[in-house]
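I have been asked to look over a protein record a colleague put together. Alongside the sequence sits a line of tokens, each denoting a local backbone shape. I have pasted the whole thing underneath without changing anything:
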Amino acid sequence: MAATTTCLRCFSSTRTAADESVLAILSGSTAARAPSPPQRAGGSLATRVAREAGLDRQTQTREMVESERRSQFQRQIYRKWQPGDVYSPIDLSGAEQKKWKTGRKKPQSDAFDVLGINPVLEYKNFTIMSEYMTETGRIKHSKDTGLRPKNQRKIAKAIRRAIGLGLMPSVHRHPLVLKKSSPMRFL
């Protein structure tokens, strides 16, 4: 049987620029200055095969340093990229990564869930409805109300229902609510 060379994908015998930079970093460390134990000429068959395949101790430390470096970069990237995602270099900047780190957390429960109230059935209660409307009669955004999406849709439906039935004004807040908020205006 003829001698064949083994192919190890992740272990290359050629040095790359990245390997050279890692070696330069390692050569400056205090661990590199410590005297290394003398190498035995012989050794077991497994040791010689591992050394020939590039699995000696020095290669392992280089791989561990490179692995640690990769994991540190991974910790800085908070967005989970999917195959086929298109990105620009600005997406990899620190400011963009910070946006993905914080993220927007949707509320799991809100006031209606805690009290067990269905917002659609409260369309006659203009006091509750006016809390979720602006001074000009517009429905507030969910980031202002703090409601979860399902209840935000229900409260919006209740407000539109109350306006449609004529129970609430569509262009301003209800007069009784305005009177409670600023009584000096109505003297």
About this structure: The mean pLDDT is 76. The chain has two domains: 44-103, 111-186. DSSP finds ten helices and no strands in the chain.
